[in-house]
Amino acid sequence: MTDDQRGPRPPVVGMVGAGQLARMTCQAAIxxxxxxxxxxxxxxxxxxLVCADTMTGDxxxxxxxxxxxxxxxxxxxxxxxxxxEHLAALERAAADKAGAGQSGPAVRPGGAAxxxxxxxxxxxxxxxAFGVPCPRHAxxxxxxxxSACAADWGWPIVLKAVTGGYDGRGVWVCGTPEEAAGVLAHxxxxxxxxxxxxxxxxxxxxxxSPHGQGAAYxxxxxxxxxxxxxxxxxxxxxxxxxRAREAQQxxxxxxxxxxxxxxxxxxxxxxxxxxxxNELAMRPHNxxxxxxxxxRTSQFEQHLRAVLDLPLGDPWMAAPQAAMANVFGAASPDIxxxxxxxxxxxxxxxxxxxxxxxxxxxxxxxxxxxGSDMAGLRSRARRAAAYLATGEEGE
Length: 395
Description:
The protein has about 400 residues and is an alpha+beta fold. The chain contains 13 helices and 18 strands. The longest helix is centred in the middle third of the chain and has 17 residues, at about 240-255.
């Protein structure tokens, strides 16, 4: 069959990064019938193991990024760590091609938006200027500045890395000046933030396309331990409808204000002070993994639709409730050997493993359960995740 007989070539989306987010996006791309390729650090990266069109390269090296982009119609990301100057160079290269009458890859989201996921202090300042409620914060360079914050806000004080922190890394809760001094002794640029009292941690996940269409998923509760997400409950139990709409509206307005293309996850504290924004992510997000089975359009398909400027899919739930539990590596690496028990014990559990080498504490997969009894769903998800990790059922 000739190329003419096959018809026009479908668009190609390239995702920089080849972790589990790219792996699950690859699965969504297959269903949509589009081209999908990843830039992987190694052939053993999670997405590289399943994506036929994989380029091995360094996302911090501009020549590798430019070479990867040449095979793409749209360039997007499964992490926030591509240097800002490289993002600008990719956008300039695409603009130069457009000026010469050639097609160049659109960078979505663009560098101007991604800046606010790469620089947490810049994000805080931008949100404050926009009138979005955030924890009180201030730049600090020495213990005197931290102590001045503590005099206003009280101890403990949270110190956060301005760049590079994720999954609990780059966040230090300091109860004393001595603990703060220990953090400041390291060569990490940090800012200070008040230690917020909250009742629950929430996440509002929305999508936005280049021409401005938006879609909002139900607001979920995330259960964190040690700064790492362990469970996601959808919709957030006990969250008032008005508060949920407030979170969705805030996320949609932020997506428009920051000119986000694709997904935007807004992590929130819900407590006595109302809703406070904690973090932003402009990519598929752990808080949205439940959408693979639990929503009419998964977050991964939605991200692809958004960056391709296709009509967005229905984000609403496919079941009344969903519970997702992350699977963490333990001492035994034989995860597959424990499938039979998990699947036989609870046929309704959906298992997703990421093809990662098992190491204690490493996030290696997740399980999702759908139904209408959140307490029961949560118990089932926990048991399945625990057995996959350790061979023992836990709560």
